[in-house]
């Protein structure tokens, strides 16, 4: 499957650059507009998008109007906006948006929410290629240099999170939340144990880096 393509409508240059840089690192292809009308005009010629990230208060045409234009094409929308009043949230979500995030937001949380929206829309990448591994998220299988490696369920889920966020440091707390869920009451030591197993089973002692006083990062210099 090809990389997911994301439409970004955000007029603040710093945020737009932050989004495009981080989404590229996470494996997404992005097209960024700072004007709602310009985004719509371009969309008429090219509407091959899997997801849209829309600010509400943008020049030309606001985010709510842009979403209405995207609806017939079935493109899921996540709002990223400073408008935190309840009326705006209701308007966005009742109007058909999949999610509504208020600025400032954590990039890791946005990536996680994007992944869930794409999964609901059946637009997620089924097979991940990282380092010498082929990770099949449908079959829950891992092949390394063509040979299958047996992983326990939570080891596999942890590997998927690391792979989808390769070259990005993730705290132990975030790994617990992303893999074990927000209701998990265990300690961060659980993450350390599973990281140890992944390093041993996949011989990734050098590639799964420990980030001091934070967590872990899967390094793929060619990725």
How would you sum up this structure, described in words?
- The chain is α/β, with parallel strands linked by helices.
- It folds into two domains: 5-120, Rossmann fold; 127-218, Winged helix-like DNA-binding domain superfamily/Winged helix DNA-binding domain (Arc Repressor Mutant, subunit A).
- The chain has helices at 13-25, 36-45, 63-70, 86-94, 107-120, 153-164, 172-180, 189-202, and strands at 5-9, 29-33, 51-54, 77-81, 99-102, 127-130, 133-136, 141-144, 147-149, 170-171, 208-211, 215-218.
- The strands form three sheets. Strands 2-1-3-4-5 form a five-stranded parallel beta sheet, with helices on both faces. The protein has a four-stranded antiparallel beta sheet with strand order 6-7-8-9, covered by helices on one side. Strands 10-12-11 form a three-stranded antiparallel beta sheet.
- A hairpin with a 3-residue loop joins strand 11 (208-211) and strand 12 (215-218).
- The radius of gyration is 19 Å and the shape is elongated.
Percent strand: 15-25%
Number of helices: 8
Low-confidence stretches: none
How many domains? The number is: 2
Helix and strand content put the structural class at alpha/beta
Q: What is the CATH homologous superfamily assignment of the largest domain?
A: Response regulator
Please estimate the helix content.
25-40%
Any idea what the shape is? elongated
Text of the CATH class of the largest domain: Alpha Beta
End-to-end gap:
16 Å
Compute the CA-based radius of gyration: 19 Å
H and E string: EHEHEHEHEHEEEEHEHHEE
The CATH architecture of the largest domain can be named as 3-Layer(aba) Sandwich
